Amino acid sequence: GMPGTGKTTIAKVVYDKFSHEFEYMSFLENVRAVCNTMGLHHLQNQLLCDLLEVERNQNISNVGQGANMIKNVLRFKRVFIVHDDIDDSDQLEYLLRNRDWLGKGSRVIITTRSKHLLQEMDDVYEVEELNFEQAHELFSLYAFRQNLPKQDFIHLSDRVVYYCHGLPLALKVLG
């Protein structure tokens, strides 16, 4: 989905609701940004620390080694993993090369702006913009702390909602 549609928010809600049902879990937020600033090996290390429930660095010297370590940790384990804001096929390749790495009953959620990265996935859900009524309600909740705009601000609220094109983040910020 487009930026600001709520992909990360939806993934967090699902993760918070279901992660307790799994023995091993990890939520890697902002993969794109972290990868650009700290490198893919940092994300691999974070994933391994989450899954192994340790705080120490796993001493990953290169992404190939990191991928093998992840494969060995994931094998035969029922895991719940969220990779948020993936923007490159290498990120998927080195964080979760293929489904054979996962134990039975495992679940992986990937959020991305690039639908083409998800070609081999079982289910793809595209987050859509809010309709006018939903957008109006969300804006009003942030702007007026109620479901509908105050009478004096209906026209202005309508203009803001049209301007935001149903993007929840824009509605929240402007509200």
TrEMBL record:
<dbReference type="InterPro" id="IPR027417">
    <property type="entry name" value="P-loop_NTPase"/>
</dbReference>
<feature type="domain" description="NB-ARC">
    <location>
        <begin position="1"/>
        <end position="147"/>
    </location>
</feature>
<dbReference type="InterPro" id="IPR002182">
    <property type="entry name" value="NB-ARC"/>
</dbReference>
<dbReference type="GO" id="GO:0006952">
    <property type="term" value="P:defense response"/>
</dbReference>
<dbReference type="GO" id="GO:0043531">
    <property type="term" value="F:ADP binding"/>
</dbReference>
<dbReference type="InterPro" id="IPR042197">
    <property type="entry name" value="Apaf_helical"/>
</dbReference>
<dbReference type="Pfam" id="PF00931">
    <property type="entry name" value="NB-ARC"/>
</dbReference>
<dbReference type="InterPro" id="IPR044974">
    <property type="entry name" value="Disease_R_plants"/>
</dbReference>
<protein>
    <submittedName>
        <fullName>Resistance protein candidate</fullName>
    </submittedName>
</protein>
